[in-house]
Specification:
Elements lengths: L1 H29 L6 H10 L19 H24 L1 H5 L3 H10 L1 H12 L11 H26 L1
Length: about 160
């Protein structure tokens, strides 16, 4: 169990870090905005208060330390996704990684953003309420593919 938890944390953190570096690259080369982790933190902080869906998370009451909450949640979710890979394919996968399991989980987790986070923050299912929904969906798929590469790469580095 200890190996499972440690590998989930390391592999998930490594994959999430690669995703963050990807977002910085897109920001610096294409001028795309980086994720606003404060708003994600606000959404997470409202969950224990019974508020799951917001018309516009930007209009919701601010929460103390919401940026820190957002960053912690971002990395915790990355570690949870790594744990899913290990729960399905076992810790043996981390000792001898292959790309397909990481890609399967990476792409499957796009659904978490499309059907949980985006609607909960007021963007609609798969960002359907945003004027650039198609672009956002493509960026989500690419980003989660980068995350999958991070899962695989971190597993390789720590195998």
């Amino acid at each position: 169990m200890a190996e499972f938890l440690i590998r989930s944390m390391i592999i998930g953190a490594g994959a999430t870090l690669l995703l963050d570096l990807w977002a910085l690259l897109l920001n610096r080369t294409l001028g795309l905005p980086t994720p606003n982790w404060a708003l994600v933190g606000r959404w997470f902080a409202h969950l224990p208060r019974g508020r799951f869906v917001h018309a516009d998370i930007g209009q919701a009451a601010p929460v103390r330390n919401e940026r820190a909450i957002g960053w912690i949640a971002h990395y915790a979710v990355g570690m949870l996704f790594a744990a899913i890979v290990l729960a399905i394919w076992g810790t043996e996968w981390a000792r001898n990684p292959s790309f397909l399991p990481a890609l399967i989980v990476g792409l499957a987790t796009v659904g978490c953003g499309w059907f949980i986070l985006q609607p909960g923050m007021g963007a609609g299912i798969a960002a359907s309420k945003r004027s650039n929904a198609g672009q956002l969906r493509l960026l989500n798929i690419i980003g989660h593919t980068v995350f999958a590469i991070g899962l695989y790469g971190t597993a390789l580095l720590t195998a």
